[in-house]
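General statements about sequence and structure are easier to judge against a single worked case. No coordinates are needed to read the tokens, only the vocabulary itself. The sequence in question and its structure tokens are set out directly beneath this paragraph.
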Amino acid sequence: MSTEIHEKVVTKEFVTIKVADQLCGIDVLQVQDVLGPQKITPVPLADAEVAGLLNLRGRIVTAIDLRGRLGLEARDPADGESMNVVVEHDGELYSLIVDSVGEVLRLPAGDFERNPATLDPLWRKYSEGIYRLKEGLLVVLNGEVLLDFGKKAAA
């Protein structure tokens, strides 16, 4: 008599975004909302990657230019409208300004790979690792580190 053991495949879900043609993923559990273009009020003396503040249903949300945070060149306004992915970190809401938002991908946790040694040091800092997809690499962003402005300010 043979017994078959069926292993439950553990998966992770990511909201996919594009930043300067690079496909990235954010843990779906961190994402609160996806918005189109928003009116953003600049904040004097803020870090360069802080685009400003926006009002989201009565809550003040800090808008982060993800291109700036990842060390990429500024987005050309002629490329069309940007999108906003609202995430929560330490009880605060942040709006990540991205080039576009894709679909939610469910990927096997076993296919996850650590960052390659050749990945840019800044990207390695903000990335948990990668998935190899048919379309290319999906860089999984580490929201905890990406949005950790407090330690920098306190230092």
Observations:
- The chain has four helices and ten strands.
